Queue: 4 jobs
Job 1
Amino acid sequence: MTSGIYNLISSIVIIDFWVKETNIYQQYLYRNKIGLNALTHRIRLEERFFPSEFGLRARYFISVQKPLGSKNIAKGNTYLSAYNELFVDLKEAKFDRNRLYAGLGIGINESIRVETGYMIQAQKNITRGQLQLIFVNNLPFKKQQKKI
């Protein structure tokens, strides 16, 4: 599966002021299973536009969801979730940041799940952690087959 997204972000760079950033990115997404574990790989190329600067960044993301006490992530089933995402600044060919996450989730129905966990983000000069609450809605574009 491939996709391209246009994304407008305003983010805090230094505590005293905001910097406007506009991103355009292309990505390749691949999903597979190893046993009961669901893996997702994503490779993303970002073009980053600032008021007086242009940046180019690559990102590699890998995640795994492991069902607990069931064979899949469905309504009422809990699961463990983990991911790692590496960011590399291509303009200067150097490390930008890394995100490492571990959490616990529950399936609400076949399309929706909620999870919470802790993410550690290591950047050039700072490492910080944060709690995350994640809501995932996989829109069911595939035609559902009737069960007999």
Job 2
Amino acid sequence: MTKTLRTHLAVAALLLSPMAANADLIGTEVGCEITPTPFWVCDAATNTVGPGAEFELELPQSPDNFGLSVDISSNSITIANIENNAFGLGANELLTLTFVGDVLGVSNFVASNVSDISIAAISFVDNALTIDINSGATWSVGGFVSFDLDVAVDVPEAGTFALLSLGLLGMGLSRRRKQA
């Protein structure tokens, strides 16, 4: 088998294999839910990822100011205490965010001025990411939790077809050059 034929077969195998890509979350819709209710609530059920915080978590029945912001960027999430006081959560609060693609993993977890919270507080199944924001944590003034997120989306079939067409065109041109 010649080197050119092996190269062409490798390109064809790559083009015909199922493809997925890490999603850039900017411009995608994300859902927000916090349980149990009626304690904490998301200020919106869904939002489009863009600049600034996508959601604020509020405790509407409290006379004190308690609140967390949820800021989602192209591939990371930051949850921050947006009030000028420290507070602890105490009703087993679970924040669930839903994405357009499947959540593959989280990494680079950082907690600053938030006690008793770790990457173990995060779980994911399919397109849902759940964060135990209670877990005995105390959120100090300026406290935040941040982590990177891997979400996969399927590459559209039209893109796969275009790549296959380009590969076949390249193989044809290479063969034509060889014959000339």
Job 3
Amino acid sequence: MRIVNSSFRPNVRIEDRAIEFVFEDIYLPDSLSNPEGSQGFVSYEIHTQANLVENTRIENTAHIIFDFNPPIITNTTFNTLSDNCGIVSTVDDIFDSIRFYPNPIKKMLFIDDNENRMFEKTIYDIYGKKVLSFTKNKIDQSALASGLYVLKIDNGKSQTAVKIFKE
């Protein structure tokens, strides 16, 4: 495991198949008074097990704990290993037929939807600032700086979001 980037330096503990990132004494302001300052992040790389085969699906869920409060459990993301394009990410809800690849992105981001629906897509930086909006399913991302982004997809009735990383 290697930390690629983080908003604060975490202490890291790995136990079985779980990674724990602990951010001590960071004192984030509340999100109502300071939305940008209230956010933190960590991005990391892990090596896959050598015996995984093509199209192996890897699930990831985060449990975020602030102080002594109950955990906030994130949506589960899925990554599918592929020799053709790196990692393909999908989300588990009404948008589950949508695939995003490659992730991390070098230049182009491809979004495949088996049902050929038109969704509004918006990319945000880690501070919540809108970077790009589009409806196309093939987008040139070469102008984006390296780092972590959030891709929000809206079908007019509901929304979902996935993390994407630009190399």
Job 4
Amino acid sequence: MLDDVVAALRAGGVADVRVLAADDAAADAAAARGLAVLRDPDPGGDLRAAVDAGLAAVGDTDVRMVVAADLPALTADDVATLRAVDRVTVVPTPDGGTAVLALPPGATVPARYGPGSAAAHVDAARSAGHAVTLRPDSAGARDADAAADLSALAATGVGPATAATLAAVAPTRPTRGT
């Protein structure tokens, strides 16, 4: 899935893709793909603090996106739309999580990952005085937290790397665009 997410980001115009890695395996996987690695300052700790540290490390002069790595249906068109935001944009997952948090230049919103994070991100952005857009229609909203999620995504199309992996396990899964 990471390969499909990275491919969508790059095809959508994101030149600077960084991976927030909590352990050596994640850091090695990112580095093997030529991605910059931001190490979690407190591995095993709070994801919120790690995301806040990651966002602080990249600055705020351009649109920044926090994108989950388990979004095998994310498309370049979704990414291009999110790169053009002029307000905080939250792509919620079906279970109320946050698949993508897009921040326009100058916007600072503390990370609120965990159960109900999409609503928490909206509340945090509004509390900070930012206008907010929800994008539940984005293909990127469909995450794969469990095998059932991946099966459902595969039925509607996923990126080629995820499709190849699924084909090795259960042939005849459609890829995006076919």
